[in-house]
Amino acid sequence: MTVINDSQFAEILKLMRTSSSWLLLCHENPDGDTLGCALALYSLALRLGKDVKICGKSQFPSRYDFLPYADKYTRIPKVGDAYTDGTLVISVDTSTLARSVDGLSGLNAPIVNIDHHADNEKYGTVNLVIPEASATAEIVTDLFVNGGFGVTQGEANALYVGLSTDNGNFRFTSTTPHSHICASKLLTAGADQAKMDDFVNENLTMPILKLWGRAFMNTELLREGKVALFWLRNADMHNADADASSVDGLVNMLMRIRGVMIGAFLCETSAANKVSIRTRTPYNARDIAGLFGGGGHACAAGAKIIGAFDDALSKLRAELEKYVDDRDTSDK
Predict the structure, then answer these.
(1) Which of 23, 132, 228, 260 stands 20 to 30 A from 39 (CA)?
(2) What is this structure's pTM?
């Protein structure tokens, strides 16, 4: 079961109940987990009569437009653009300050940091960080249920999306018995898992399908098939009218190749070259991402590689091969 320290739990509940306004923050390039948690909390804030805002520094991904209150999300470059004195700031699924909106570190305000990343920077006034949880949605579900708030159907749908997208529909090794317990609670509250799965996984357009095919055509196998790598250029994304959410889950396809233990996807964007990494034991995705200043989980992590795309691709390829060689040598 997800473990929440009683005193910590009580402190968070007190802040949530006594604060008249909440500011909910999502991480950059928001995924289903950060959005599902924040939108469920947005709904709860309305039920409790709070003045509430939900914000992030990236554009809201269109693939999640179906979530309740999605139209309330606001893109802001600095936290001061949405913060007012006396507001409780709740950051969800955001491991580092760099992944949040600018200005959070200097904010003189109570900050509740709810997350499941083991490398979380603990930047909050209260840090509810539980790496054993398969998704931050597990932790937020426990807050709803154990806090006595109950869960509406809309909140259950949002949290179910967060839960299922982050643990790969309960396929990843991060999935625990408590993950299924949380899912059961959300289904009992009215979550429509079939409809949520359709919205999330059955919504590829023809241009996006062809974009994925382009990545497949770029696939390389390294180190006797232990490593699979593919990539997309900025022009590929532009021609498909794609955004970051269009390639959510794409890297997971590499792990379907027989014998692959490490999958890596490099995507060129206007800001940086983003790498997504997936691994199976004994390899560690977080360790690989750390080579580029990134982080995440043991089996799923990411980073940014600054510089020209071709240089980034060569560097990634070399580091993957070196990582496997070093790891395999140390195990002998």
Answers:
(1) 132
(2) 0.90
